[in-house]
Design goal:
By secondary structure, the chain is α/β, with parallel strands linked by helices. Helix content is 48%, strand content 12%. α1 (9-18) crosses α2 (25-37) and α10 (205-215) crosses α12 (245-257). The strands form 3 sheets. It has a 5-stranded parallel β-sheet. Strands 3-4 form a two-stranded antiparallel ribbon. β6 and β7 (167-170) form a beta hairpin. It has helices at residues 9-18, 25-37, 51-62, 77-80, 86-98, 104-111, 121-126, 149-158, 189-192, 205-215, 221-234, 245-257, 265-271, 279-285, 288-303, and strands at residues 41-44, 66-70, 82-84, 117-119, 135-139, 160-163, 167-170, 176-181, 196-199.
């Protein structure tokens, strides 16, 4: 069931919490402004910090359809916006010729009509939806080519797409647009100007622990504290790819599956593949480094006030 948009920052925080998304107030404020001002929200941050999840939570909690455009190198308008059903058009032309239709203007007008148009995610997001305007997720924009960004400007600025053969198709209600980027390249200023911006950072220990409590229910409290402390220390190190929240959750689920109650060096060494995704990083942490980190964590936890 569709629900109204949040009326304040506090309502936005409550809405995200309802969707099991643990947000800080800064993100909730930017999201609230994006929703109330009907402006696209551009989220940048390292992979695995929860950018994509925001769109999914909005779709679920607001009761809106989720239209997702997953970006990749070589993405073009035919895959993202629309394309013509050429096979159906050719069949229509052959049928028209068999019926003796010779007026090219009439034939052209017929074959370039909406019934031969294949809608891709951007055009789908501008169409009317039963539950209200959908959530349009343009995910990992930095993976696409710079030229593709030009296709997005009209959508982000005016909530419309111009198709030369038909004209302009404008959304009856602006979609809720979330654009994400892992910042593998810089996004052009022309696109950023059309959005509100927020950098999604790694969470602090308290917020990461709260995330684990929500995403991995039933996890042992001491184990969860050890996991968070270990990951927080890893993020201060010199690794090729620092673990994100997604990896923390994966690791906690893996340890829970193995019935681990307390972290020890052997367990860490055997399960690092759930947390780190590059062999050089795993090799750097395994062995004495992991043991020293766990020893330091145990000392900190023992010295912490109860």
């Amino acid at each position: 069931m569709t629900r109204p948009l949040p009326s304040s920052v506090d309502d936005t925080l409550a809405m995200l919490t309802e969707g099991d998304y643990v947000s800080d107030r800064s993100l909730a404020t930017t999201l609230y402004l994006s929703l109330s001002l009907q402006r696209p929200l551009f989220l940048e941050g390292e992979a695995g910090v929860g950018k994509t999840e925001i769109a999914k939570v909005l779709s679920e909690v607001l009761g809106r359809d989720l239209v997702r455009l997953q970006c990749y190198e070589g993405l073009d308008s035919a895959s993202a916006v629309y394309e013509w059903n050429y096979q159906a058009q050719m069949i229509e032309i052959r049928l028209a010729e068999a019926e003796g239709v010779t007026d090219r203007d009439v034939l052209s007008k017929d074959i370039f009509s909406r019934k031969f148009l294949i809608e891709r995610p951007l055009l789908q997001a501008l169409e009317p939806h039963a539950g209200g305007a959908p959530v349009l997720l343009i995910d990992e924009l930095d993976r696409s080519d710079e030229a593709f960004e030009a296709f997005l400007l009209e959508v982000l600025a005016d909530n419309q797409i111009t198709i030369p053969e038909i004209g302009t198709i404008k959304a009856p209600e602006p979609p809720i647009v979330i654009v994400t980027s892992n910042r593998t390249r810089e996004i052009h200023d022309a696109l950023k100007r059309r959005c509100l911006y927020h950098w999604v950072d790694y969470p602090d220990a308290a917020r990461e622990l709260e995330i684990l409590e929500r995403k991995v229910p039933g996890a042992d409290e001491r184990l969860a504290e050890q996991i968070v402390a270990f990951v927080q220390k890893l993020r201060t190190g010199d690794l090729f790819k620092l673990p994100g929240i997604a990896e923390t959750i994966d690791w906690a689920k893996a340890l829970q599956q193995l019935d681990v109650m307390v972290l020890d060096p052997e367990t860490v060494n055997n399960t690092l593949g759930a947390l780190l995704k590059y062999q050089d990083d795993i090799a750097k942490v395994q062995g004495s480094e992991a043991a020293n980190m766990l020893k330091a964590i145990d000392q900190e936890m023992a010295a912490a006030p109860k």
